[in-house]
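_Per-residue structure_
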Amino acid sequence: MDEARITIIAQHDVPQTLHLFSLSEACYKCQPTQAYYRGSPVIIPAGKTDRIVKIAVNTTFPVELYVLKAGDNTFCSKRYVLYEGWHYNYTISGGAVERCKMMTTLSKVTVDLPVFIALGLMISIAAMWYLCKWLINKQHHYHLMCCLETKLLINSDLGAPKTSSNHEESNGGIITEPRETCTIPSCPTPSLHAQKRLRSLDTFRGISIVIMIFVNYGGGGYWYFKHSAWNGLTVADLVFPWFIFIMGTSTAFSFKGQLRKAIPKWKIFLRIVRRSVTLILLGLLVNTGPKSHDINTMRIPGVLQRFGLVYFFIASVHLIFARVEDRNQNKIWAPMRDIFNFWAEWILYLGVLIAHICLTFLLPVPNCPTGYIGPGGLSENSSYYNCTGGAAGYIDRIVFSVNHIYQHPTSMRIYEGDTPYDPEGLLGVLTSIFLCFLGLQAGKIIMCFQSDRHRLVRWIIWGLITGFIAAVLCRAAQEGGWIPVNKNLWSVSYIMCMACFAFILLAICYVLIDVFQLWSGAPFYYAGMNAILLYLGHEVLNDHFPISFHVADNHGAQLAMDLWGTCFWVLTSCYLYHKKMFYSI
């Protein structure tokens, strides 16, 4: 996968020894480096006849090829967009014009075709499913299969029978639920939507876990379903922050129920500790396996570990400020009560954000420039080769040691380098806490405002504000901004960007599912009801049959395999929901 075959033909009028150098377009501020094939440098030996060398070149990103003569003089260079599976002839001549020429000798279908086929199949299946449900709900299948004319005649003469009970008739056909009193401070009694379990929240969580399973299984080997090498965003960079965001949203409802039942705060705190410790221990369990059970090299940070630390901080702080009784609400500040009534929390979390910025840009790092946030390796002309992640990487290497953090960061794909770096390290916990707090803010909006319009307007406003902050910090560009969008660092611009997407996605799900009820949330709703179980299951059983088995080494086969693995867990969640089996921590 992701390779093109190139036959290099050095003609007889170029008798010198030639070296092939390359530079990937994705490598920011890098210099061309010697091209290698099967572990050996690509060298065209000197000779007075045509010489032929066959190599393979990565096609993930456009590449610039440099042909250098002995003595490092550039003979020719040009940028090429190469395609997977294609064969090329790269002819090097001694002429004055167009010394190096690339020609296609064998072309194949586009590499992205399996993605479009898979999307088409999923859309078709979804359309057929909802069409069948619509026909069944409207009883059109009965009209088509049974005595349509007779039924119409009877209804026209006698009238259609009524089947609703007296209770349903008295309520317009809707069985209502008793209202509950609000337990979030300074909030009015919530509307009916707040009384029931919001399907949009579970659907949001389900969307996140389904995409996470798919990208963790490989995403068909496509680069946009893998994490970014350093700066920038891909599909895989979205899901983890969304989980943290929705965890904050759910915390607001969890505390409401516990405080309403008059559970002592010390008991709630013990539950917080138990849940946090359980998440961390499960994360360590996921990090181990047949090939990674050595206590001397076991990775300590991880996804569930990040969940545990963030939840402990967010839940503990919220427990301190939460109150059962309502406060008198000043009418002037009523439209902003979700902020002003929690001003102390805002000050605390803004302090957390400032602490992250100060540590990132002011902490001295030995042998590295202060404030460096690059990938190290080949970047910056290899000037900071071992400075991957700057302060974030330095803190993890001090606290955990080099042997207990992630050994193969995504930056190695493009920037090479040999410095371990953990994307779930300690410094990123601070920005993750702030992102979770923004999710908690979304939950407070649900609890404090009754109407759907008020909730949606506030979510959209928050989405626009956080998106604007992210755009300013990164200068609306992948590279060159003050604080680039970077999942490896969990930069401030990254969590603001993720909060923007989360607020907007939550608003869309809320409108479609809970307001207009145009969509039940299926099948993501079922996955969201057992998200932790699905995460643990797909991590522990990812290499076991029938979830995974050997297929051909091409994007089409790998995509089918990864989609099947994802569907397996979605079907599992549907079965568990049908059996009313829900597992949480």
